[in-house]
């Protein structure tokens, strides 16, 4: 589908579901980031879910987001149970503003909800010539290393770095082997999962998306690394902000879609100028990326920097359109009928 038409449809649906303009714009911006950059699990396929939780009462459709300065370079953002994308963008905007004066600044987010692709908010920092770091926790769906029950959420970590004359260096990763929405996507497409990414009720590996009861931590046989990264995200997002731990959160998929989930998140912006001159920083990034991309690849392989694949995918999708999986298309048709809209 044409990206502009898809974005317009998203804003129309969210508005029809009761969202105010800032909420509809932020949620659409975040979803389109996911869909354009090939992060389909956190892209426009979330539209049906977001419309549902807005109407059901879980997400405040017109929140009064407030900022409380807690120290010279730290702020606490209360999302007022609004959409996580609105909180994410505003938190990074505040962090980047403070970092211009303080060198680096952090914003803790409280009383929020699912915010989609963490990379969208890290990228917002890079677009303001800052280094951005974002993380959040989520409801338990990932076992510990050698564990046999859900403990952490997928707990993503994202970082973006500006590069003069180029697209930013962009890392966006779940601390689980895959995000749960990737399982849903594979289920919709009728495809088997890759090995060592998900487990059944006993904690044993499964490739069948229908049998998945939990995800594996990132790292396969060395999953203690992914579990440790999930713990880092948990501490910054929930412990530091006073929000609920992953195993205390209501599941994203319900059945209770009317009670706010009270999610926490964390955003940090750093101004490179606080450490070296801007010229030296940019020269260093260019030198690093030039050497990285020139590094010899294995047979049939290709060496890329974080973000290279996503930027190439975004260019292709802007030109040829965004692919929509069958389940999402069915949801679009149902949403269009419910709100008397036209499918893009």
TrEMBL record:
Keywords: Oxidoreductase. Pfam families: Ldh_2 (PF02615). It comes from the Bacteria. Transmembrane segments: none annotated. SUPFAM superfamilies: L-sulfolactate dehydrogenase-like. Belongs to the LDH2/MDH2 oxidoreductase family. This is Ldh family oxidoreductase. It comes from Aquibaculum arenosum. The lineage of its organism: Bacteria, Pseudomonadati, Pseudomonadota, Alphaproteobacteria, Rhodospirillales.
């Amino acid at each position: 589908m044409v990206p502009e038409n898809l974005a317009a449809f998203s804003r129309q649906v969210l508005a029809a579901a009761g969202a105010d303009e800032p909420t509809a714009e932020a949620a659409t911006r975040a979803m389109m980031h996911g869909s354009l950059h090939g992060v389909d699990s956190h892209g426009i396929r979330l539209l049906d879910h977001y419309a549902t939780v807005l109407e059901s009462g879980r997400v405040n459709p017109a929140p009064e987001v407030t900022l409380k300065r807690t120290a010279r370079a730290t702020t606490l953002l209360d999302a007022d149970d609004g959409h996580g994308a609105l909180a994410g963008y505003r938190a990074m905007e505040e962090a980047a503003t403070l970092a211009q004066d303080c060198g680096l600044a952090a914003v803790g987010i409280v009383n929020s909800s699912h915010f989609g692709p963490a990379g969208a908010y890290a990228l917002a920092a890079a677009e303001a010539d800052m280094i951005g770091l974002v993380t959040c926790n989520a409801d338990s769906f990932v076992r510990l290393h050698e564990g046999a029950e859900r403990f952490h959420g997928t707990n993503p970590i994202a970082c973006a770095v500006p590069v003069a004359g180029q697209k930013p260096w962009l890392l966006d990763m779940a601390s689980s082997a895959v995000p749960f929405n990737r399982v849903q996507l594979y289920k919709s497409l009728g495809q088997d999962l890759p090995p060592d990414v998900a487990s059944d009720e006993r904690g044993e590996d499964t490739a069948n998306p229908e049998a998945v009861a939990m995800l594996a931590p990132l790292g396969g046989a060395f999953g203690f690394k992914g579990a440790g990264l999930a713990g880092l995200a948990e501490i910054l997002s929930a412990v530091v902000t006073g929000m609920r731990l992953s195993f205390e959160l209501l599941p994203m998929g319900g059945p209770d879609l009317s009670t706010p989930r009270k999610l926490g998140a964390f955003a940090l912006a750093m101004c490179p100028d606080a450490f070296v001159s801007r010229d030296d920083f940019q020269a260093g990034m260019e030198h690093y990326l030039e050497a990285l991309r020139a590094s010899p690849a294995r047979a049939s392989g290709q060496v890329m920097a974080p973000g290279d694949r996503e930027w190439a995918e975004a260019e292709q999708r802007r030109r040829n359109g965004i692919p929509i999986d069958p389940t999402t298309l069915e949801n679009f048709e149902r949403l269009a009928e419910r709100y008397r809209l036209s499918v893009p």
